[in-house]
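Attaching the record inline, Q. Sequence:
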Amino acid sequence: MNYNEKEDFSQFGKSFQENLCQLILFDRAFADQMKEVLNINFLELNYLQVFVKKIFDYKEQYKIHPSSEIITTILRTDISQENALVQKQVRDFFARMSKTSVQDTEYIKNAAVDFCKKQVLKEAILKSIPLLKKSSFEDVQKLINDAMKLGTNNDCGYYYLKDFEKRFELIARDPVSTGWDIIDKLCKGGLGKGELGVVIAPTGAGKSMALVHLGAKALEQGRNVVHYTLELADTVVATRYDSCITGINLEEIYHKKEEVYDDIKDIKGQLIIKEYPTKSAAVSTIRAHLDKLNQRGVSADLIIVDYGDLLRAKMPKDEKRHQLESIYEELRGLAQENSCPVWTASQTNRSGLNAEVITMEAISEAFNKCFVADFIFSLSRTVEHKNENGGRMFIAKNRFGPDGLIYPLFMDTSNVKIDALPQIETFSEIKKNVLKKQEKSLQEKYQKFRKGKK
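Structure, as predicted:
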């Protein structure tokens, strides 16, 4: 321990101290930890001392952590005893911090707690010197032990009463639109930060097309999209984006190079497509690639994995259903780590091939992978649908609102045009129609059989 160390935060600088005060306001658990060891005088700037003191005074009086709204009121009405300059500095600081987020939070927390604990322990050691002279060893031990306990991480979870204000704070999901107004209304604007969306469909029904649609609509909103393809070549995926954004048929893309470029050159979002051979990449591979992009100043606003079932499992010797469950759990974790949505797709089993509506019962191998997803929709396209550029979308799971809804689709795979249309049928109505068709087909077969016998 350096006993000549300055007994305030001046060595860390003004920016560090302002960020520290911002964390004390917005992080209740950290504020409780700091309250045990922080001497207000460690803050060298007077306006920061006033700011933190108001937070701690409020906690002391009302036993709950203040919200931003409460602090706003306090700074308007309860600092009149301070001189005019300090009042202005406090309010200016609060206005600045309300518009910015703290970077390097873990470093600031660790450095601040470490500094404060050293000061508390130093004080305890100095107090113990006269006790040692009196041979009061038990008192010395208690003094040092009490000092060592202060400032430890005491976050035991969400406190129902202490964290009361937190329940009423608006959490910024920053949803990325699906490009379908009907679906956006169901999931409160689209998929948000840390959320996982899954498209379920049989082979050939348009899973990859739907993922390209979701990526293209995000791109048009100025979002950065990172698209991982484990089945198609990166240039094939890029061509599908060209078609989806421009409306030019896939067959004509190669003959309209200049027209395509003119349409996409002003898009504000950035698209990066990364191709991996099937089963060669794991979620850790994707995580490493995203880290490289971050180092180059590119942060993902939306991650697309086409598709999750083709990723390599962390434990390849496990049963396939356990492998898939683990992969989808990791994808959810990837969304949380990068504070952005992740869309992926999943294959159905054979029952989904000719189904009028695909429910989660048709999901292939691991039903448990549905548990971690926030939003799941399925695509069903019979032969008739494909001939008529139609299909059905079934909302299989929705953590943000109603599910079990069915919407007709317009789906033209020639130019990756997909529209979700207003609901016109319920699941029971579709089942009745299917039964009628089956009954009619059986009657026709029976009549043919009867005629053949005659």
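The chain has a mean pLDDT of 85. The chain is about 45% helix and 10% strand.

More tomorrow.
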